[in-house]
Write a structure and sequence with these properties.
Blueprint lengths: L4 H21 L8 E5 L4 E3 L27 E3 L1 E10 H5 L6 H25 L18 E4 L5 E4 L12 E4 L8 E14 L5 H6 L1 E14 L5 E4 L5 H13 L14 E4 L4 H9 L16 E4 L5
Helix pairs in contact: 1-3
Length: 300
């Protein structure tokens, strides 16, 4: 190939097309448990996470429900993926391997969101604090009881296990348990001018993508995380705890868990709980069909 500007621009367009094709080929799961929230600055405040709004009987004046009671902040981070193409490969038309490579770049870009949501946020919720100052999966989330006294609720087991993590989610809510905050979507950029420094210094044309975003946590009431054995008994206890949790002053929230998220190692256990006719004791499986199973390869 003659290394003139027209040919190099067309080559960049071709690589970009393969990259876009890779984006559409990737199967993304992150939006099952995460809400995408647009960002307009380097970080966003989520003070409204301090309270779930609740309708009340209108007696007397309106009661303004103050949502700004926390200072939870998610700071955007920058991410990139860059590929170099040897100038001699272009000159010699030795480009067969690069097309699939740029498709994999697209797949990797889309998979990055899943990795961030599942491996970083969801799996990391046992150690990373949410807006209320305790780990997102905790048995000591602060709340006010019906009398306005300080109390706690749990969205994990009282005795944490050490097995693979599994997660029960109410995925029907407008706000999912995880927040994917997006400041700048991934953008494909080509450094493919013959006089670019990367070509002059290293004999390489460079193509990359970059974006700005981060993940954080929303309401912990909408998720249960456990490292105990995934059994019918533990699954049932998690459902009961989630459906019974209340907001401040004893107000019901109406949580209905409907999504069981597991790593590949727990697929069989999840399928058994949700699909088998009989439970582990040989009795009728009362949990059959109570949730959808989502197997996520990004979970350990």
């Amino acid at each position: 190939m003659i290394l003139n500007r027209t040919n190099l621009v067309n080559l960049g367009i071709s690589f970009n097309a393969r990259y876009q094709g890779g984006l559409t080929q990737a199967v993304s799961q992150f939006e099952r448990v995460a809400t995408v929230v647009p960002s307009t600055t380097k970080s966003e405040e989520y003070g409204w996470l301090g309270k779930i709004p609740n309708v009340r009987e209108w007696v007397g004046d309106r009661m303004v429900q103050n949502l700004s009671i926390s200072s939870y902040q998610i700071k955007n981070k920058s991410f990139e993926l860059t590929i170099s193409v040897d100038r001699d490969d272009i000159a010699d038309d030795n480009l067969g391997i690069y097309g699939p490579l740029f498709e994999e770049m697209g797949r990797s870009t889309m998979a990055h969101k899943d990795q961030l949501v599942f491996a970083t946020a969801l799996a990391g919720g046992f150690a990373t604090n949410g807006f209320d100052g305790v780990p997102f999966f905790s048995n000591a989330h602060p709340v006010l009881d019906a009398n306005g006294q300080t109390a706690t609720y749990a969205n994990t087991d009282a005795n944490p296990g050490n097995g693979p993590g599994w997660y029960l989610i109410d995925a029907s809510r407008s706000l999912k348990p995880i927040i994917f905050q997006e400041r700048k979507p991934f953008e494909f950029v080509a450094k493919n001018r013959p006089d670019d420094d990367n070509v002059f210094d290293r004999r390489e044309f460079v193509f990359g993508v970059d974006g700005r975003h981060n993940v954080g946590y929303a309401f912990p009431q909408f998720a249960w995380g456990s490292k105990a054995a995934l059994t019918g008994d533990n699954y049932g206890a998690a459902r009961q705890a989630m459906m019974g949790v209340k907001s401040d002053y004893g107000r019901p929230i109406g949580v209905m868990p409907n999504l069981l998220v597991v790593p590949p190692a727990l697929e069989h256990a999840g399928l058994t709980i949700l699909n088998a006719e009989r439970d582990q004791y040989g009795a009728t499986n009362v949990y059959k069909g109570t949730a959808e199973l989502l197997v996520v390869p990004w979970l350990a």
